[in-house]
Protein: Translation initiation factor eIF4e
Organism: Aspergillus carbonarius
Amino acid sequence: MSVPSLHINDQSPIEEQPRDRDVTRKSLHQNIFGKLRPLPFQYHWTVWYDRHTDTPNTDYDSRLYVLHEDVADIATFYRVYNNYPWDKIRLRDTVHIFRKGVKPVWEDPENRNGGCWRFRVPKSKAQAFFHEITILCMANEFQAVLEKEHDHVLGVSTSIRFNTHLISVWNKLGSNERSIKALEQTILDRLSPELRPTGTGSNAYFYKRHDENEGYHEAVEQSNT
């Protein structure tokens, strides 16, 4: 699988090579990279691997582990991203990129009242989609539109399915309709045109609160014991 690559080191500025690509996509990347060049990320991030199991009620500690604990800047992100074997992820396994200190599970205190936008993305576009979503998240492009609602974007995930990837953007306040709608609109506006979903509903993308998932209440109860 072809993975977007951008070579960065700590001594050289980030530069985009001319490409015959959509101007909007190029501008999006240039604007974000320009903001990130002088400073580290506002938040630090952790990369997690979530191994699927068919065994019910499996302890997350036995299936969830850290790939990289502290992604503090764009150079570190690309050192991790460009060297990860994305094409080797097993069916139904998941990679999460979350704010450091927040575990990518429903029962984490930061996640309990939250939810996520979920996008079903064809395999041919999934890696590019996840790449852009991740950059927009870590660059605070999503967070900026939620500040006035006192909401937070906590992380992004990509989960491998048979014909698609299920890509999620997690936010803290699953009952705040204004922030949920603002996040949706920002995702759609900032994605490259060729990656935007062509419809709504279960066949394209949808929002779901964590407490609407089967097993949520049991997971929270177990975490409190």
The domain at 43-223 is CATH 3.30.760.10 (RNA Cap, Translation Initiation Factor Eif4e). The CA atoms of residues 54 and 203 lie 25 Å apart.
